[in-house]
Amino acid sequence: MAPGEKIKAKIKKNLPVTGPQAPTIKELMRWYCLNTNTHGCRRIVVSRGRLRRLLWIGFTLTAVALILWQCALLVFSFYTVSVSIKVHFRKLDFPAVTICNINPYKYSAVRHLLADLEQETREALKSLYGFPESRKRRDAESWSSVLEGMQPRFSHRIPLLIFDQYEKGKARDFFTGRKRKVDGRIIHKASNVMHIESKQVVGFQLCSNDTSDCATYTFSSGINAIQEWYKLHYMNIMAQVPLEKKINMSYSAEELLVTCFFDGVSCDARNFTLFHHPMHGNCYTFNNRENETILSTSMGGSEYGLQVILYINEEEYNPFLVSSTGAKVIIHRQDEYPFVEDVGTEIETAMVTSIGMHLTESFKLSEPYSQCTEDGSDVPIRNIYNAAYSLQICLHSCFQTKMVEKCGCAQYGQPLPPEANYCNYQQHPNWMYCYYQLHRAFVQEELGCQSVCKEACSFKEWTLTTSLAQWPSVVSEKWLLPVLTWDQGRQINKKLNKTDLAKLLIFYKDLNQRSIMESPANSIEMLLSNFGGQLGLWMSCSVVCVIEIIEVFFIDFFSIIARRQWQKAKEWWARKQAPPCPEAPHSPQGQDNPALDIDNDLPTFNSALHLPPALGTQVPGTPPPKYNTLRLERAFSNQLTDTQMLDEL
Amino acid sequence: MEGTKLEEQDASPPQPTPGLTKGDKHEEQGLGPEPAAPQQPTAEEEALIEFHRSYRELFEFFCNNTTIHGAIRLVCSQHNRMKTAFWAVLWLCTFGMMYWQFGLLFGEYFSYPVSLNINLNSDKLVFPAVTICTLNPYRYPEIKEELEELDRITQQTLFDLYKYDSSPTLVAGSRGRRDLRSTLPHPLQRLRVPRQARSAASSVRDNNPQVDWKDWKIGFQLCNQNKSDCFYQTYSSGVDAVREWYRFHYINILSRLPETLPSLEEDTLGNFIFACRFNQVSCNQANYSHFHHPMYGNCYTFNDKNNSNLWMSSMPGVNNGLSLMLRTEQNDFIPLLSTVTGARVMVHGQDEPAFMDDGGFNLRPGVETSISMRKEALDRLGGDYGDCTKNGSDVPVKNLYPSKYTQQVCIHSCFQENMIKECGCAYIFYPRPQNVEYCDYRKHSSWGYCYYKLQADFSSDHLGCFTKCRKPCSVTSYQLSAGYSRWPSVTSQEWVFEMLSRQNNYTINNKRNGVAKVNIFFKELNYKTNSESPSVTMVTLLSNLGSQWSLWFGSSVLSVVEMAELIFDLLVITFLMLLRRFRSRYWSPGRGDRGAQEVASTQASSPPSHFCPHPTPLYLSQLGPAPSPALTAPPPAYATLGPCPSPGGSAGASSSAYPLGGP
Questions:
Q1: How confident is the model at residue B106 (pLDDT cuts 50, 70, 90)?
Q2: Taking burial as the number of CB atoms within 10 A of a residue's CB, which of A580, B38, B193, B488 is the most buried?
Q3: Touching check for A247 and chain B: CB below 8 Å?
Q4: Of 3.40.50.720, 1.10.510.10, 1.10.540.10, 1.10.287.820, which CATH number belongs to A371-456?
Q5: Are the CB atoms for B609 and B645 separated by under 8 Å?
Q6: A108 touches chain B (CB under 8 A)
Q7: What is residue A355's predicted lDDT score, i.e. its pLDDT?
């Protein structure tokens, strides 16, 4: 023996890791089945009869399949939530209440800015519909005077048009985005008064820069057409007015709020903070003072809520911008942005409006349970509002950002993103066309805002119940109105009228707070115990069994295969080496134990067993008495420590 | 099966274990109990199913190989009675515990508990269908005559009862007062209610349980077919009485309308809706459909399922909803039917009929009403988990409406069904099935009597409609809340009215009372879905069962299969032994005796504590081909080789496995 071989043998002997002890895969299976704790396997080997065996194989495989299927179901249903609804009875924080007059600015204050526009609107009305000149208006003469020297500024830019009924069908195509040239007569140029037949519709045309690409907007009613047209121009004008000036033109808190009561205690304008909304002017938010504790109510019922009387000066209303009278109320969280147009509730004048609230809080679980966001930081839309994230804020921010991107300026109704200006047609002549196109795309979800924005995970909502009653009553108004007039004497110098006032009550119906909370329905412990249950139920298997399976079926399996391949490779090599001497015996069976000879591993008990029985040389004289001492086990592997048995033999 | 088994038996006895080869075999076993791969039994050698030769063998095999933990100790340990008893008690305890737990688990599962899930979704929403009615029933020209007559009679009745001479517009009717009065059945009468009789006489149906201090009531008499049973439908308030009476006659007149009515001219409709916008885009006739409701007048349904492309809301807010300007002028087609002015609006799902009675909002004239909606969806689990129906096909009430199943639809259909069954005619406000005509007292003289009786039965659920009509499994509802503001404002009303009058023939002198505006929009696109899910599913039930089972027994489903196999084997062996005994007794009794003896002897000879596996048959059968039939060495000798301390005493095993092999 060469010294190298010796060392090799030594290493082999001392190497702690040996290969699988079964020489073949079949042996390995058999060994595994006899020794594993997993039920079913043993029977495969032990049972007698082919059908029985087959049945047992079937049972075992079925059990394995069931385990896998059920565990897969468990895993897939892992991310489910369970909902708990709790009702607390406690002192509740009063929400922030934002109150806006529907009319944004006092018409008397803003009129100098809008004079041209108003005059042109009236002219449009006159020429379109043949209105008689309003005689009742105090300043009717001012119209005519202005009318003389004015060049129509607004209608030149975006003229109001009349479309025939027959063309209406074609014109309607424009809403679907198809371009079409519409023959419209620009009415303002026509000197004679035209009477609009009911078969004709009114609209206006918005064009892009080169006026080749136009969209026409028609309205089934002239009222809508005029209002929309007016609003467009109004936004243009107001976009150029600085904010301080706008605030001054709008209502002051003292003016709007005549009386105020909260939780049975009097309050006044100082409890309100100003919030300027582009379309609704000065709004005032109650219970939103910074650096102050949030007010709360100790009792439910209308006596303990907010009671205000609002002065809605109907005389100061803009006739074309708004057509209804009243105020808007928004109830929201302190850090939430009041979306006046979306969630506002209108209040009617000469009425008392009672709004009963019921608070519901919702908490959702975020990823991976649902697609909601905690604070909006993972939404790729920049929040342009100075408020906490909400879905609405995200949608509006997304639209505004797109607007700045596409049209170069910001829409008037929403806050300004940084480094952007509100649109006006001095700087951006075709922004309106751009805006309408963009809005259409937005509504049809072509901008992708709806897919990007996620809902917030937690929100509070106040369910409102509104009821109305006539106020003040005929008998009480006799004393009520003079007293209120005296109260307001500092701000207004006219006698209050019933229709100028509105009373508002906001209160908690009860102090029950409903919380809807989601919690994970499954925990990892539950999952594991369910796994355990499934493994136990079908096969009485455990994690150790699983490890066993991995060991046997993967490691040993592959090492056996590898060994086989190695053997084959070796054989092949040997054959290749020794082609010149064909008389050499091909298989060394006669002399050697093939397992020992070829195997690179230590000879195992099993491989040792491969000693060929020396065919035909069976000597029957061997006495059997040794058998009992052999202590044959049912499982051979127990004695697999080494090949001592061989030596014994 | 039987044949193979028998064959098996016949085949195996001539396989005695030859002594020499036995030695050979034992040598091989000494090397390892596993035969090498090439020596594995081949398919021909191993039978399809092999059975044990005896109970003992079977039990030993079972005890050796079973996986049931307690059972091994109980059945297989026979050393010590004390121990056996102890194990028996333990086994019973755990068995009881396990089945108690199983009972609890199954009880929980079969009570079908559900857990509530609340999902808050935010999505683009389909705008619901909106139905708006004028509250002004239209006077069809076909029945104009009869209605005028009814009006005249009403005038007369009012005059008779209340000395109220109504509007001079109907003076023309006064000419034929006396004779016309008699033409209508069920005249309105003033009734004196006797105090003591009130409680006793059931014939007077009292709609107002309060004591009427005047002792006078207004009502009309309804009788059955042969006038044997009559009652008075009475009301404490004259207004109610007159209206109800008028309505009753109006229904009768309506039923005489011909089947196919000429559709109302579009002109009458266009005047109701001044302006319509959705999502800042004006809408047109294609967006709504029209029908006439006999009580609520002209109704317009926007965005119903006939609409070519349904309206979607991708933004909340008042600007992104439906905005309508309506005419609320009182044309007063039928003044006694509609006592309210304004309009009625209702929000419902696209495929649901608009039940204006059941839900709806009245709109005030001169006011802009902003109705904000919030969607809410409810999904119930059907089947075993709750009593609901998926599409109404399993409800024993025929759906008379051309719409999907809702509970209201079902209840109305149910009432109509009963009405047709009891009264023989259909109530006019509900759809009628084929070849049934609407009720009219000219044809069905007693239908009023029948109807009011039925109505009472219906209300007290004697008809069973409320139990028959199950809840639908998925319901979408819209929660509405409204805000009001005056419209048009003082400053803008001038041009608004002017505009309306120019464009829509609006008469300005009505001022505010003639117009109303309504905005319907989604307050938020978040909507809540309340859904149910089974709180114990099959998977969790199985997991829990498995946990319990593992905890108490450590056995598995496969163990149960083992048990089943044992029982099957027992039965088969019993059968075979009986068969063999039978055969040996009748054909060759000597042999049978010997066989029986053999069984007995082997049972006696092998020690009871032999936990020997049975790989031996395999080896034996392997050795089958080795031809050594001459060998007569008796196998029992092997058992005596040692006390078989090792379970691998293959000799013992072989002896017990082949009790019949000796001869």
A1: very high
A2: B488
A3: no
A4: 1.10.287.820
A5: no
A6: no
A7: 92
Say what the pLDDT of residue A479 is.
87
**Count, residues in chain B:** 663
Q: What is the DSSP letter of A410?
A: B
Alpha-carbon torsion angle B178, B180, B183, B184, nearest 10: -100
The residue of chain A with its CA nearest to that of B530 is A83
Beta-carbon count within 10 A of B510 CB? 17
The two structure tokens encoding residue A1? 């023996």
- A528-543 mean pLDDT: 86
| Inter-chain CB proximity B315 and A48 less than 8 Å | no
Q: Which ipTM score applies to this complex? A: 0.73
Please name the residues in contact with B236: beta carbons below 8 A apart, sequence gap of 6 or more: B207, B208, B210, B212, B217
Gap between the terminal Cα atoms of chain A: 25
A204-218, A361-375, B365-379, B608-622: the lowest-pLDDT one? B608-622
Dihedral sign (CA A328, A333, A336, A342)? negative
Query: Is-contact B549 B401, C-beta < 8 A?
Result: no
Comparing CA positions, the residue from B341, B323, B380, B409 lying closest to residue B532 is: B380
Residue A525's CB is within 10 A of a number of other CB atoms, namely 8
pLDDT for A613 equals: 46
Shortest CA distance to B7 belongs to which of B63, B66, B48?
B48
pTM of the predicted structure, to 2 decimals: 0.73
* Ranges of each domain in chain A: 36-78+526-559, 82-104+252-353+460-465+479-518, 108-130+153-240, 371-456
Between A246 and B359, residue with greater pLDDT: A246
Q: Can you read off the two tokens belonging to residue A266?
A: 């009097």
With a cut of 60, say whether residue B205 has pLDDT above it: no
Distance in angstroms (rounded) separating the CA atoms of residues A624 and B24: 9
**Considering only CB atoms, which chain B residues are within 8 Å of A63?**
556-558
Half-sphere exposure of B647 (CA within 13 A, CB side): 15
**Which superfamily does A82-104+252-353+460-465+479-518 belong to?**
Acid-sensing ion channels like domains (2.60.470.10)
Continuous H helices in A239-323: 243-249, 253-256
Residue A494 near chain B (CB below 8 Å): no
Does B23 contact A620 at a Cβ distance shorter than 8 Å?
A: yes
Count of CA atoms in the C-beta half-sphere (13 A) of B548: 19
Residues B492-542 have pLDDT tens digits of: 888 888 777 777 666 666 677 788 899 999 888 778 888 888 888 888 888
